[in-house]
Specification:
heterodimer, A: mainly alpha, B: mainly alpha, MetI-like fold, about 75% helix, elongated
């Protein structure tokens, strides 16, 4: 942390002859903080992408040869592939050259050209296009279910905190405690069994009914909503429980505060006191928690999408792995790393601006 | 043992969690007994020994699967395999995590920032895709290998929890005193810090074990994972690939899911219970 010294005013002040940059940074702590946080962001990104890259290459076995082997197994022919063909595919899939050359090319592809090479799963469409097709489904599913569960969780949590002596509140809290950490794929399996198979109320797989024309017509939208309900519920349920618990905890700690007593004494309605005064303290910690959890959220979505056969990124990943589609898999993993780290970085930057009490820099 | 009974009396969550956990371990340990009781001299896991898809009855409390195997016995044996994988992965992850945490928390300074950045990096990486890739390219991965891979991805959790505790303990007066009396770093770590951290390390290990079990179950549900194991995740994946859900054969899917959930809930309840006891401020806040 070379820049850490620069951010501390104490360290910078006695150095009279220090470069003016240092003095300027000392007077602008937020910029210094942002620069330092950006450095951490770059280092973490490099580390994470390197781990992903090396992890891949260290797996014993040659992806091209094992793909050939699986082709031979599948179609029952003996293909003594010529060396030229194998070399050609090595080049197409970025596997030629030594480890260092591959490493450099990998970073160049991911960060600069965004060109991942052809996808086996839909040869010869470039992998990035195949991934881009599935992205809206995942983002829509995740975004909606997180947003909805956030609101429900915070409101229920605040309710449980305000009426903490009532039996309903105790009941809600205990249910949340029980289900908060049950993996979402268990919820998915149970919902699938009860709602989709037993009761047959909602469809069990896919994201829309192919009978309807894709586009902005009511039938199609209705079918998208119907197909999305079960996966969204499976993702949201655990979130509601966890948000409820943490919101309840945060609200309870503020309950004795003077400003709440004052708000009540002014004669404000309890709903207003709860939403406008007590909940103010809940939003920010919840945003941070959400950013930290993003990696897990993506983990969970992979399995949910696979269970419901939902055409999102997670399902694509599982299908791509089944046929050993190297480029697509690598693209999805790199994308998820870049996405999660960037989201964390942005939240850390924006949070101090939104909440004046947060001071990461000192 | 005295402190155990204090714990037992102090928190209802701790009591319930521990009871569930002990019941599950007993169920797994008695797998062979259950097998003998149901099989009556035959092996109830042999293919085609009973009729397929029997509904639950007195002879087969959870019915049979597509290959005519008894589901109750499969569940008990599967739980044993799951627990084994979890414990192996959990111990490895915790050991590594604790070492990292002690070095980072105790040494502080630059070593701490490097190790913390590494830990945080591992924490934010979506690890499941990497795990999936690993198991896909190594079709016949063994149980020990998969436990190792699971451990590689779960040590950061243990490291983060323990590091925070080391940091808070390091500045306590009795550690200062130990340092003032010129105890070596090793003596301070092993004689002063470690004993006080054991509850946290225990909880961390339990969480890491359960995390590994569930990660493996997740892998198996999407049809990837070791091929030689008969654990609870495999049961679920059998159920899905046989279409048990649409056949209405609920026990083969409900039993493993319920048991794994109970395991997870039990460990979390113990965790909450310990927090309440060791963190009295929390108890007054949390109420119940």
């Amino acid at each position: 942390m070379a820049s850490a010294a620069a951010t501390s005013p104490v360290a910078a002040a006695p150095a009279a002859g220090a470069p003016s940059v240092r003095r300027w940074l000392a007077r602008h702590p937020f910029v210094a903080y942002a620069v330092r946080r950006f450095a951490v962001y770059v280092v973490t990104m490099w580390g994470a992408l390197s781990i992903a890259f090396l992890f891949y290459r260290l797996i014993p076995g040659d992806p091209i040869l094992s793909f050939m082997a699986s082709l031979e197994q599948q179609y029952g022919f003996q293909q003594a592939a010529s060396q030229e063909i194998i070399e050609h595919y090595r080049e197409v899939f970025g596997l030629n050259g030594n480890l260092f050359q591959q490493y450099v090319r990998y970073f160049y592809q991911v960060l600069v050209t965004h060109d991942l090479g052809p996808a086996l799963i839909d040869f010869p469409t470039p992998a990035q296009q195949v991934i881009a097709r599935t992205l809206p489904w995942t983002i829509g599913l995740l975004g909606l279910s997180i947003a909805i569960s956030w609101v429900i969780g915070i409101v229920l949590g605040a309710f449980a905190a305000f009426r903490r002596d009532s039996p309903i509140s105790a009941w809600i809290t205990n249910v949340a405690l029980t289900f908060a950490f049950v993996p979402n794929y268990f919820i998915a399996l149970m919902v699938l069994f009860i709602v989709a198979y037993r009761l047959a109320w909602l469809p069990s797989s896919a994201a829309y009914d192919p009978h309807f024309e894709k586009g902005f017509n009511w039938d199609f939208i209705q079918s998208v909503i119907q197909h999305g309900l079960l996966p969204a519920f499976s993702i949201a349920f655990g979130f509601v429980c966890r948000d409820l618990l943490s919101a309840r905890m945060l609200v309870i700690t503020t309950l004795g505060e003077d400003y709440l007593t004052f708000a009540e004494a002014k004669g404000l309605r309890p709903v207003v006191v709860m939403l406008r005064y007590a909940l103010r303290n809940v939003y920010m910690p919840q945003v941070t928690a959400l950013a930290i959890q993003l990696g897990f959220i993506f983990n969970g979505t992979i399995i949910i999408e696979s269970i419901f056969n939902y055409p999102g990124v997670g399902n694509l990943l599982v299908n791509a792995i089944r046929i050993l589609d190297f480029n697509t898999v690598q693209g999805i993993i790199s994308m998820s790393i870049v996405g999660v780290l960037t989201a964390n970085f942005l939240v850390d930057l924006i949070l101090p601006l939104l909440d004046p009490r947060v001071k990461y820099w000192r | 043992m005295g402190s155990f009974w204090t714990l037992w009396r102090a928190s209802r969550k701790f009591r319930i969690g521990l009871l569930i956990l002990v019941a599950l371990i007993l169920f797994a340990a008695l797998g062979d007994v259950i097998s003998a009781l149901i099989g009556r001299g035959e092996d109830p896991l042999e293919l085609g020994i009973y009729n397929a898809w029997l509904v639950p009855s007195l002879a087969h409390p959870l019915g049979t699967d597509r290959n005519g195997r008894d589901i109750l016995v499969m569940t008990a044996i599967g739980l044993r395999a799951s627990l084994l994988i979890g414990v192996v992965a959990g111990v490895m992850a915790t050991a590594f995590g604790v070492v990292v945490a002690f070095v980072a928390g105790y040494k502080g300074g630059r070593i701490d920032s490097v190790l913390r950045t590494a830990t945080d990096t591992m924490l934010v990486i979506p690890t499941l895709p990497l795990l999936i890739v690993e198991s896909a390219f190594q079709r016949n991965i063994s149980l020990l290998q998969i436990s190792f891979v699971l451990a590689v991805f779960s040590w950061p959790f243990a490291a983060r929890t323990v590091r925070a505790q080391v940091l808070s303990l390091r500045s306590r007066p009795y550690v200062e005193l130990a340092r003032a009396t010129k105890l070596t770093d090793r003596e301070i770590i092993f004689e002063e810090l470690l004993p006080n951290l054991l509850p946290y390390i225990g909880v961390g290990m339990a969480s890491a074990s359960v995390g590994a079990i569930l990660a493996l179950a997740g892998l198996e549900i999407i049809g990837l994972g070791p091929s030689d194991a008969l654990d609870l995740g495999i049961l679920i994946s059998f159920a899905i690939s046989w279409g048990a859900l649409s056949l209405g054969a609920w026990p083969i899917i409900v039993a493993p899911v319920a048991i794994l959930s109970a395991l997870f809930i039990a460990v979390n309840l113990i965790n909450f219970g310990l927090e309440e006891i060791y963190n009295p401020r929390l108890r007054s806040i949390a109420g119940a």
